[in-house]
Specification:
Blueprint: E1 6-7, H1 8-16, H2 18-26, H3 35-53, E2 65-74, E3 79-89, E4 97-104, H4 112-129, E5 135-140, E6 145-150, H5 153-172
Bound molecules: iron/sulfur cluster.
Iron/sulfur cluster binds at residues 17, 19-20, 178, 184-185, 188, 190-191, 194, 197-198.
Length: 198
């Protein structure tokens, strides 16, 4: 198969288990949308409406131009996706920086997979708007708290390395090894395809 760009959410899935991404691209008909996923998508949509009424002060900003649900695509990075919120500070014409925000239906601090996803949006927004993106935020919907995330050099490198790994998998159509920990296999929707681990 030939894919020129991958979804940013693939990076997060890849860190969870590379096989999930393999099944998505190499066996595209097998993945159902679970009721849990549909409920999560509906809540995500509702949060966008609430965000429009929320103040920029939540992010420690006095001024900023907000763009919700922004579609981003980068052929050079090999990525596409929609970031929940992009903010130009103070606006896109006179901007000195831009910020990315993702909503999460979780109280837990952002793990490596969430930070990687945010960094991918940051890199694409830099390219799209021509503004530096040095930080982002995770908005935790259950607690309505924001968590600041630095877009570090290490995260930037990790985004590119992960895209390269997914490209190699897709081109070779080779099923990746299962993750070392099998904890997630117990609740995975693909477990019936992974006869070697469950
Ligand atoms: S069952 Fe385990 S190894 Fe298979 S796709 Fe799910 S998480 Fe990955």
């Amino acid at each position: 198969m030939t894919e020129h760009t991958f979804e940013v959410t693939d990076l997060r899935q890849w860190m969870y288990c590379p096989r999930v991404v393999y099944y998505h691209y190499c066996l595209p008909d097998v993945r159902p949308l679970t009721r849990l996923m549909l409920a999560g998508m509906a809540e995500h949509h509702n949060e966008s409406g609430r965000e429009e009424r929320r103040s920029l002060r939540s992010y420690g900003l006095k001024a900023g131009e907000r763009v919700f649900d922004l579609a981003l695509r980068s052929e050079s990075l090999g990525l596409r996706g929609r970031v929940d919120l992009a903010i130009a500070v103070p606006d896109r014409q006179a901007g000195t920086e831009a910020i990315v925000v993702e909503y999460k239906d979780s109280e837990q601090a952002a793990g490596p997979h969430v930070k990687l996803q945010l960094a991918a949006y940051a890199l694409m927004l830099e390219e799209a708007w021509g503004l530096p993106v040095k930080r982002g935020f995770i908005y935790h919907m259950p607690t309505r708290k924001v968590e600041a995330i630095s877009i570090t050099a290490g995260l930037r490198t990790k985004v590119k390395e992960t895209v390269s790994a997914i490209q190699a998998m897709a081109q070779g159509e080779t099923m990746p090894a299962a993750p070392a920990s099998r904890r997630q296999c117990a609740v995975c929707e693909f477990r019936r395809f992974c006869n070697d681990v469950v």
